[in-house]
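Suppose a classmate hands you a notebook page containing two proteins, each written out with its sequence and a corresponding row of structure tokens. How would you begin to make sense of it? This section walks through that situation. The first entry is reproduced here exactly as it would appear on such a page.
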Amino acid sequence: MIIEVMAGKSAAVHGLVHDATPFKFSEKDTAAEYFGKMLEAGGYNYYGTEKMYSGIQGCEMEAAIFFGVVHYQRLRHMVSDKWQV
């Protein structure tokens, strides 16, 4: 999921679509390195971290926060939809 966050953020920055196949990259050219270089080219940190500001005090937080764009699919598996008589 960490690679997916880096891929999603770099795709959003550059306006591209990335292939999420897990076997596309090798041990020499890893996905983290590829997307890290793309993030750097877009003006972001190589590791995908960013500085955040406190919403209460307005000062910069000391920790670098890792966040980005991820796709979630809500699956509708409810007991009320599955019961049979």
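The notebook's second entry, a different protein, reads as follows.
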Amino acid sequence: GAARQLARWARENGDLEAVGRTRALAANLLAHPLLAGAGTLTAHGTDLAFRRRSCCLYYRVPGGGVCGDCCFAR
């Protein structure tokens, strides 16, 4: 997602402070009442990952496959 890409860019450019700010921003956004419980944000070192709890149904589109934060077990 967007937060992962921002954190990756910051890490690749040596800005670990920006990685931390990105992580904090993502956590704050996902704590909002409209998004709370929508998924799980995890951090592994400087990498971020989000896994949704609901299905986007992208797999039902012809040739769609699954999305990057798919809730289906892999």
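A careful reader of the second entry would note: Residues 2-60 form one domain.
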